[in-house]
Design a protein that fits this description.
260 residues, mainly beta, Lipocalin, 10-stranded antiparallel barrel, 68% strand, elongated
Length: 260
Amino acid sequence: MVKALLATLVLLLGFQGVASAQKAQSSSNGEAFVLEFRADYWMPTFSSDLQVDSGNLAGTNINVVRDLGFDEKKSIPTAELTLKLAERHKLRFDYISFAYSGKKEVASRIVFNGVVYPLSSQLKTDMELRSIKAGYELDLLRNENGYLAFRLAVDSVYAKASIEAMGAISNSASTSAIAPVVGLSGRLTPMPWVSLTADICGVGYDKSTVYDGAIYADINPIKNLGLTVGWRTVKININVESKISDTQWSGVYGGLALRF
């Protein structure tokens, strides 16, 4: 869906020609800023499979919702900051943090990071994940109808999981990675106070991948304020140092954009 919208944006913008792409900044309320801060409230569905081996002892492939009692739905705040350096040049920073916990009597034997938790163990589990992206965005094509931009960023990802058998065994594992991220962002502005945006970025390194895609609409009643509603999916697959995690969040979100 994100890729299809980006393709549509390219076609609509392209009809204006390369010359019009160099026109002055759009008169849209949503484009008249030097600094933009977005705060969103995201309501995704969560799924995650986790496996941590240790030496010759293979870990159990754990579904954290089914096996450990994590909530499948949980609201998450997100933040984004954009600094416009010039007509087609921006710096952009994204932050998102996830924290989940669960308590459950397990229905089968679980092996995690070299520790065996027997059948019927009462487990308390915590998992956290953070992603911080910082990057540069260049408008390849811009006119009065919107823009198409290329993005180059660095994504710092940190993940940690811990499992504790109530009053007995406690064990944890963590991993982190820093990798370059590339992406595209396209915006269509059918009228000065409404815009439609598709944003996609990701990276693959070694056996791990990170993907982040969103489609959203902004209603900009005044120059300094925007109301946002959209849909976003984040997928993080980590496979490093005997640690495997396949995690995804997908769902709708809404929020505000403040511009100065």
